[in-house]
Design goal:
The protein is mainly α and about 180 residues long. The chain is built from nine helices and two strands, in the order H-H-E-E-H-H-H-H-H-H-H. The N and C termini lie far apart (about 110 Å). About 15% of the residues are buried. It binds heme C (HEC).
């Protein structure tokens, strides 16, 4: 009887069988979607290292930074224009006034980047609006990498100048073309 029981015959049981040699049946391991896996404190995913807080958040020492860390160049402006027209224009339209297709087809009211309040924002605050969203505007930090968000800030500044430029902003060699 004892031998038969040991050999596993008999009624089914919920208790685990006696294991003389467990071999490698039991070993510590993680199964997908069982334990909530928390990364080790201080672990950083690839490409997520935010060494430069100001560049990554637009904030330094608890304050919005005043100036865009990207130098203004034709390349940055063109990149910003391209990204703005992809990510912002659907709501804000290509001039930034807020009459994009989304607002025309819904009850959403996108802001106007030419609003004096927005013009008076520091570059860091503008960056933060894109990064985290604001009130009804969604965040764009997942779709748009930080470098492109700064390029968009550069371009928004250029857009804002288009509504307050004076004749002095026109290079002298082009003034003759104005009518
Ligand atoms: C899905 C639509 C949508 C997109 C896309 C969008 N915005 Fe907005 N944005 C809004 C709405 C809506 C508001 C008004 C928020 C409010 O005041 O409730 C707004 C407001 C703003 C403001 C003014 C914030 C303030 O304090 O008044 C700025 C600046 C701005 N957006 C910039 C951008 C830029 C730059 C992009 C592209 C990266 C962008 N937005 C993309 C919908 C959008």
């Amino acid at each position: 009887m004892a031998l038969l029981a040991l050999a596993g015959c008999g009624p089914t049981s919920r208790r685990p069988p006696i294991e003389i040699f467990s071999d490698m049946r039991r070993q510590p391991k993680f199964r997908a979607q069982t334990l909530p896996l928390r990364p080790v404190p201080g672990a950083v995913a690839q490409g997520q290292l935010k060494e430069d807080e100001a560049f990554a958040t637009g904030i330094s020492g608890g304050m919005y930074i005043g100036k865009n860390p990207l130098a203004i160049s034709r390349e940055t402006l063109l990149r910003g224009q391209e990204r703005f027209n992809i990510y912002c224009a659907p709501c804000h339209d290509q001039t930034g006034s807020g009459h994009g297709i989304v607002g025309l087809r819904s009850a959403w009211l996108p802001g106007n980047v030419h609003d004096p309040r927005v013009k008076n924002m520091t570059d860091g605050e503008l960056f933060s609006v894109i990064t985290n969203g604001r009130r009804t505007m969604p965040a764009y930090r997942f779709q748009v990498p930080a470098g492109d968000r700064w390029a968009i800030v550069t371009y928004v500044r250029a857009l804002q100048r288009t509504t307050s430029a004076t004749i002095d902003d026109v290079p002298s060699e082009l003034k003759g073309d104005l009518r």
